[in-house]
Structure formats: structure tokens, C-alpha cells
Amino acid sequence: MPKKASTSPEDEKEQSQWVFLAEESALTQDTDNSKPVICRLRHPRTDDGAMFMFSCGDTLVHEIIVFQEEYRSWFVGQTVQEDGSLYLTTRVDPIFLVLPYLIKAEKKGKLMTSDQLVIDDDFPECNRLLSCTGLNELHHVCDIKGDDDLKAYRYNKDKTLLWLKLKVTKLADRLQEKRINVSSGAAAASYVKSLKTEAGSKDDCIRYAHGMVSDYLNEEVSQELQEYLGIQNLQDATPVSEPPTKKAKLVEKVDPEENYYSTPTGKSGSQKPKKESVAQKKLKQVDKSGMKNIASFFSPKVKKEAK
């Protein structure tokens, strides 16, 4: 049997490369020379595992989004990277990732400390969320008991909806400020004829921002937020009638009572004789005796019978 080819260190290095677009804050090393960490966490929307990256010192958390195409590779130095995927990092508020644990603990009716709340046997790296700077804002979604040395938390639905509403409103204002086209038929900027892109209405931006925030909420909380914001479903909304492309006819088509295309059979004294032209009058004065009718030149000739 032929021997299996061994993998060289250069091949292993090539296979362990990825192309990332990351924020500088996620890669800046801390004073203790710590490095960014990539791990799997429970996604708050799907409840399944997803890739996230913690910055140096676990102060910030970023979601990793992968853009893939079937036929794509990268040229890295003098090598070809077969995996042409593009990895993007986007910063996430850690409260969104902690919110499912808070809701789960609230159903038990107990107040818990942060280290008791964020425990997940399937995703043990979730304890890194406790070091994120954004968790000092937990009072926006929780009732807190205790002092600075020992704090216990319990999920508060009303506080959470108010906090999420502020998120949606701020995002919608940003969409309007940037004049982002949020309509269902949004076109690419290169295909827009006018340089001034029409911004969506306030309601359209609110609906679009709600969808963006709901990417980090489970279905139940997303529905509660939609009702809290007073957003109407598109299928339930009253359709706005578009103006007709052509002017509507004000008078219906009426057929004439008399047929003006048929030749009258009866005598009518009301019809006036047509005026003859000068050429027609001169033609009548010409002596036509001995002249043949022009139609006779086109009639078939009759063969004479042989005697």
C-alpha cells in the first residue's frame, strides 16, 4: 500500500489561517499580555452555540460572523489559502448574552448572584462574560438586592422592555440620520438615480431597528417588545393604495345610436350633395366617345375559336 503523505509544518500553518476583519479594541493587548480568546457561547436568539471572541482581558465580547462563497480563496504571501471565508467581528452588549440566564433564573423565583446566574455546562466559557465592563449596567434589566460586596439579581420584565425600547429608538434615530433605506424594496446605492437617498419614515425605522435588536432576543421577548413599541405586523397593516398610472376616464364609452359606416338604403332629403372639384367638372366636359374603360385593359382576353 502506498504510504500516506505526511503534513509539513508549512501545510499545517496554512490550514490554520483565517482572514479576519476585527476592531482594533478587540486586538489591543492588555498590560498582563493577555490575548483575545475565541470560544463558543449560547446565542440568545437561537439558543444554539455560536462563535464569539473576547478581547484582551475579557473586557469586550464580539460575535464572529462568517461570510462564505462557494468559489473563493485568499492569496496570503506566497501561499494560497483554500478557505476563502471572511470572518467579521461585531461588538455585542454582554447583557444580551446574559439575559437568557436571567429569564431562566427568574422562573425559579429566586435572587441569585452573578456567578450563580451565568453557569452553563454546555458552554463553560460563558463565565468570561462576568468580566465584561458592560455588566455594570445590569440594573437596567434586573432588581438588585444587597450591597457592593454581595449583590443578588432578579430579572425585571418592565425594566428590560424599557431598556430595549431605548436601544431601538436610538438605533432608529441613527438610521434616519444616516438616511439608510429601510424599505422592503431597498436598492443598492449604485442603482439609485438620485444622489439623495430618501430616508424611511420614523415608523419604518422603528420596525427595522426592532428587527435588528431582535437578532439577540428570543421569540417571546421579541414579541413582547413589538407589542410594547406598538409595532403593527406588516400583514395586518392596511395597504396604502397607489395612485393610478393613467388618468381615469370620467365618461364611459357610449356607442352611437346610428351606424355611420353603413350605406343608407332609404332616401334622405337631409343629406347634402358633395361639391365637385374643378378637375371633375372639366372631365365631364370632355368628349368620351370612342374611349375604352380602363378596366378593359386588365380583363382576360377571350381566345377566338378556330374555324
Describe the structure.
This protein has 307 residues and is of the alpha+beta class. Helix content is 26%, strand content 14%. The protein has eight helices and nine strands. Strands 1-7-4-3-2 form a five-stranded mixed β-sheet, with no helix packed on it. It has a two-stranded antiparallel ribbon with strand order 5-6. A two-stranded antiparallel ribbon has the order 8-9. Helix 5 crosses helix 6. The radius of gyration is 41 Å and the shape is elongated. The N terminus is likely disordered.
Question: Would you spell out the secondary-structure blueprint of this structure?
Answer:
Layout: H1 9-15, E1 19-21, H2 24-27, E2 37-42, E3 49-54, E4 61-67, E5 74-76, E6 79-81, E7 86-91, H3 94-106, H4 114-117, E8 142-146, E9 151-155, H5 157-177, H6 202-213, H7 219-229, H8 278-285
Parallel strand pairs: 1-7
Antiparallel strand pairs: 2-3, 3-4, 4-7, 5-6, 8-9
Helix pairs in contact: 5-6
Summarize the structure.
Helix content is 26%, strand content 14%. The protein has 307 residues and is α+β, with helices and mostly antiparallel strands.
Separate helix tally: 8
In spatial order, strands of the major sheet run 1-7-4-3-2
Shape: elongated
Order of helices and strands: HEHEEEEEEHHEEHHHH
Which residue ranges are poorly predicted, with pLDDT under 50 across at least 5 consecutive positions? 1-7, 185-196
Query: Care to count the β-strands?
Result: 9
